[in-house]
Amino acid sequence: MDELDPVIHAQARLRIMSALSTLELDESISFPRLQELLDMTAGNMSTHLRKLEDAAYVDITKTHKGRTPITYLGLSKKGRRAFEDYMDTLRSVLGER
Amino acid sequence: MNESQDDDAALEPAAMLALMQNQQRSIERQVNGFVPVITLGWALTWLLGFGALWLIDGLRPAFALPVEVAVWFFVVCVLATGALSAILGIRSGRGLRGNTAAAFTGTVYGITWGVGATALGVLGAAFRAQGMTAELANFYYPSAYVLFAGIMYMIAGGIWRTVPSLIAGAWLVMVAAAAPFFGYPHHYLFIAVTAGGAFLALSAIGFAELRRVRNAANGGTSRG
């Protein structure tokens, strides 16, 4: 538990995980809204989301609103747990626990 | 924010912790930043709207606002602030998809506003049909609606766990119940000052909190 999870331990991915952690359980957010809130480019955010998805930390749901495809993102149970573990480790590294 | 930097890299642990906290605050501010604006809108509606109703007879003989002007002004204030609340609320919720239970709660809550407000209007008309005088109606309508709004704020506070909403609601309920004791037309002034003042204070607290969050998100690392 002393290793900082390398999947989360990168600025862009920590920002994405932090943003998603503010959502309620089972809540999700559309790709463009998250992009707007984080002020990231679409390409950059996609790259990092892919890494989070590969680790099964993020649930990605593709759906349609009328004819427009929309992608919704949210933390998976595994992702939420990983984020909490990451915070615990970070705090213990900093000597807060 | 920091697109140009190597955002695949990590910072020092302390900086990563600060980055995480600042990001969460920034999201919070962007999603909920509209709430003090709406509160300010309602503060002005209570103050000016009920203030106008008071001015129909409140400053006689020095000044008298025509009834039609006062009532229309009041209605326009309420409708405009209601529309502003709805628009800002919807804008802030765009791109967010809640679970079905939360969506059900929100929908029921929204419908309850409409059903309750309509029923109070019908009830008032029914009372009038049974002989309630115009003088009594002057007390019934404002107190009924302020009471209802107060109860709805209290319920919202309970559902979404927002203490300011709970307190504002309880305050409105007391204001509505006490208002008729002040007699016509001063009960209008009483509502304007007490309800409007409370909402002004509430929005000031909200704006101060936003400013605190914004300062923290812009680089404060120690607080949180």
Mean pLDDT of chain B: 91
The share of residues in helices of chain B is over 70%
What does the oligomeric state look like here?
Answer: heterodimer
Question: Helix proportion of residues of chain A, in percent?
Answer: 40-55%
Pair of chains with the largest interface and how many residues each contributes? A-B, 37 and 31 residues
- End-to-end separation of chain B in angstroms reads 20 Å
Summarize the main sheet of chain B.
none
Q: Which structural class matches the secondary elements of chain B? A: mainly alpha
Shape of chain B from CA axes? Answer: elongated
| Series of secondary-structure elements of chain B, N-terminal to C-terminal | HHHEHHHH
Low-pLDDT runs of 5+ residues of chain B are: 220-224
Low-pLDDT parts of chain A are none
In short:
The complex is a heterodimer of chains A (97) and B (224). Chain A has 97 residues and is of the alpha+beta class.
Polypeptide structure, described:
- The complex is a heterodimer of chains A (97) and B (224).
- By secondary structure, chain A is α+β, with helices and mostly antiparallel strands.
- Chain A has one domain: Arc Repressor Mutant, subunit A.
- Chain A has 4 helices and 3 strands; from the N terminus they run αβααββα.
- Chain A has a 3-stranded antiparallel sheet with strand order 1-3-2.
- The model of chain A has no long low-confidence stretch (mean pLDDT 93).
- Chain B is mainly alpha-helical.
- Chain B has one domain.
- Chain B is 77% helix and 1% strand.
- Chain B is built from 7 helices and 1 strand; from the N terminus they run H-H-H-E-H-H-H-H.
- Chain B has helices at 13-32, 35-54, 67-93, 100-129, 134-160, 163-178, 186-217; one strand at residues 96-97.
- The A-B interface holds A 4, 9-12, 14-15, 17-19, 21-30, 32-34, 36-41, 44, 48, 72, 87, 90-91, 93-94 and B 1-3, 5-11, 13-14, 16-17, 19-21, 23-24, 26-28, 30-31, 94-99, 102.
